[in-house]
Design a protein that fits this description.
Number of helices: 9
Strand content: 15-25%
Protein name: DeoR/GlpR family DNA-binding transcription regulator
Helix content: 25-40%
GO molecular function: DNA binding; DNA-binding transcription factor activity
Keywords: DNA-binding, Transcription, Transcription regulation
Distance between the termini: 31 Å
Largest sheet: 7 strands, parallel
Structural class: alpha/beta
InterPro entries: Carb_Metab_HTH_regulators (IPR050313), DeoR-like_C (IPR014036), DeoR_HTH (IPR001034), NagB/RpiA_transferase-like (IPR037171), Tscrpt_reg_HTH_DeoR_CS (IPR018356), WH-like_DNA-bd_sf (IPR036388), WH_DNA-bd_sf (IPR036390)
Number of strands: 15
Strand order of the largest sheet: 6-5-4-9-12-14-15
Order of helices and strands: HEHHEEHEHEHEEEHEEEHEEEHE
């Protein structure tokens, strides 16, 4: 197992359990206790966990894995969701993409659509996510608009009043939201309030709103609300979503696409 894979596994275990002992982690990952101690020390230096005597605990109350350690979670579901979302976008539209692993997959699905291989522009993409802008900037047929703001290292998203300034001056056809939680009663949410504020503004500037989220995020709540469920036109999720969950979203006026 590579170091990055080991670190991702450690962080995911930590999120699930809240606390990990060295011996417990070593047994789980089938490596030596010395390796786990070294991993814990290095992750603590990056403020991704808090070192304790004999183990580690999560860093902060509202713990969130950085984007680079979340990419492998529910990967196949996210790719199916991304293709379905990309299919809902018409050539020539202006599309807003928030940050996140699923929206990054949406950007990749749009980039390989044959009918978007040319145009002037084939799509206008508005994003506050640095990684998405970086991936799409090499596509000359796409017009890329990046908001200003201060980069949030966990999600590569630009946040703050500089991003507000750009989004307040534009209108878009569709906003695609990546979320950490989406519930029919409590709406779409993020961990960070500044990130939620930018995502909310993107929704307000859009004619229609799509939430792209795997089923593990549905029926969940998070600290900062982005928008109520009634503001979302379509939820694209994976086939593991339950029928009762679908019914609740549909009663809230959200169309559900399960792939």
């Amino acid at each position: 197992m590579s170091r990055d894979a080991r670190w991702k596994a450690l962080l995911e275990l930590l999120v699930e359990r809240g606390r990990l002992d060295v011996e417990e982690a070593a047994a789980q990952l089938e490596v030596s206790a010395a390796t786990i101690r070294r991993d814990f020390d290095q992750l603590a230096e990056q403020q991704m966990l808090v070192r304790t005597r004999g183990g580690a605990v999560v860093h902060g109350v509202s713990y969130e894995l950085p984007l680079r350690y979340k990419t492998a979670r529910h990967a196949s579901e996210k790719q199916r969701i991304a293709k379905a979302v990309a299919d809902l976008i018409a050539p020539g539209e202006a599309v807003g993409l928030t940050g996140g692993t699923t929206t990054t997959e949406v950007a990749r699905a749009l980039a390989v659509r044959p009918d978007l291989a040319s145009g002037s522009p084939a799509l206008t993409v508005v994003t506050n996510a640095l990684n998405i802008a970086n991936e799409l900037a090499v596509r000359p047929q796409f017009k890329i608009v990046v908001t200003g703001g201060v980069a949030r290292p966990q999600s590569y998203e630009l946040i703050g009043p500089l991003a507000d300034g750009v989004l307040g001056q534009i209108t878009i056809d569709v906003a695609v939201l990546g979320v950490v939680a989406f519930d029919a009663t409590h709406g779409a949410a993020a961990h960070d309030e500044a990130e939620a504020a930018i995502n909310r503004l993107l929704c307000e500037r859009a004619e229609r709103v799509i939430v792209a989220a795997d089923s593990s995020k549905l029926g969940q709540r998070a600290f900062a609300r982005i928008c109520p469920a009634e503001s979302v036109d379509t939820l694209v999720t994976d086939a593991a979503v339950g029928s009762e969950m679908v019914r609740r979203f549909e009663e809230a006026g959200v169309g559900v696409v399960a792939v």
